[in-house]
Amino acid sequence: MTALATHLRLFGALLGLLAGVGLALVARGVPLRRAPSFDERLAPYLRDAMPPSRLLDTVSTRSPFPAVQRLAGPLVTDLAERVGRLLGGTTSVRRRLRRSGSDRTVEQFRIEQVVWGGIGLLAGAVVSLFVLASGLGHQVLPLLVLTGLAAACGVLGRDQALTQQVRRRETRIVEEFPAVAELFALAVAAGESPVAALERLSRTGQGILPVELGRTVSSVRAGAPITHALQDLADRAGVAAVSRFVDGVVIAIERGTPLADVLRDQAVDVRAARQRALIETAGRREIGMMVPVVFLILPLTVLFALFPGFIGLSLFVP
Question: Average of pLDDT values for 205-220?
């Protein structure tokens, strides 16, 4: 009976803590205590202004989680700003989002981090309540620390997932580059201009790099200088091979130098680098395969080889 009462008191204390946090958040969100933002102060004076066309809205301001945005939009946005100030690295996040091929903004990514952190917080709270209810633990402070660590792991896990997405995309770009470079060199050698060759590759090719070439051609058709559009391509790809490809094309356009041979040499270099990387990976995997062989298979083999002898010796021992 005493243990049950202790569990009930701990459960009541946890519920009281959650209720107190909720009441504090409600009190903080009261309009009388919340200072109006700059946009809210300007809204009455711009109410009669004509809203801009949706066709000009190139960046969506909606969250990737619209339900969460409608239910707890101000709180999630405020938490996202706090996470951004705490973690920093806005430039790095913006660069990785661009290299991942995503159209999300840094603010939307921070909102995703807050949502992932909330999921981790919920999972940590459920585990803590289960531990308290089952009697496996009686200390509340370690369980609160566990819940906080789960929330932090959710926030940092979203950042790590973005990094892994960028690495997978860069790997695919490196794999696609030799074929794209050779086709581009073939088209240029046949007499097509660089822009026409890029457009042909974007139409006929499949993969990440042809899509990026299509975006570059669209920028050129929209009026951007081809050198700036190609440099933007190198920034979006984030791969050294694509940067050298862009430099060669820009130099060929500006100075009129031959381009086909240079692109073929770049494709050969990328294939050679890819083969060296595969050989290095195979060497590391071979060393990794020695671990189960030496520590698992070899001891079992020795044991099976010597076990009959041990049994035979034990039979002759009086």
Answer: 86
d(C-alpha 216, C-alpha 235), whole Å:
12
**Cα 171 to Cα 9: distance, rounded to the nearest angstrom:** 55
The pTM score is: 0.64
Tokens representing residue 309 in the block = 């002898």
Closest by CA position to 245, among listed 256, 226, 230, 257: 230
46 pLDDT band, cuts 50/70/90, is low
Q: Give the tens place of pLDDT for each residue, 52-108.
A: 555 544 444 455 555 555 655 666 666 767 777 777 677 888 888 888 888 888 888
What residue segments make up the domains of the chain, in order of their start?
A: 172-272
Which DSSP state fits 65? -
Residues 80, 105: Cα–Cα separation, whole Å: 12
Q: What angle do CA 173, 175, 179 make, to 5 degrees?
A: 100
Q: Compute the distance between CA of residue 59 and CA of residue 97 in angstroms, rounded to an integer.
A: 13
Under DSSP, the state recorded for 55 is G
Distance CA 45, CA 140 (A): 52
User: Are 99 and 237 within 8 A, CB to CB?
Assistant: yes
C-alpha distances (whole Å) from 214 to each of 40, 81, 109, 174, 204 are 40, 34, 26, 17, 10
Tell me which long-range contacts 300-306 makes (C-beta under 8 A, separation of at least 24).
Answer: none
- Rounded CA separation 23/263 (Å): 65
For residue 316, what are its two tokens?
Answer: 């002759």
Q: In sequence order, what are the residues at sequence separation of 6 or more whose Cβ sits closer than 8 angstroms to the Cβ of residue 66?
A: none
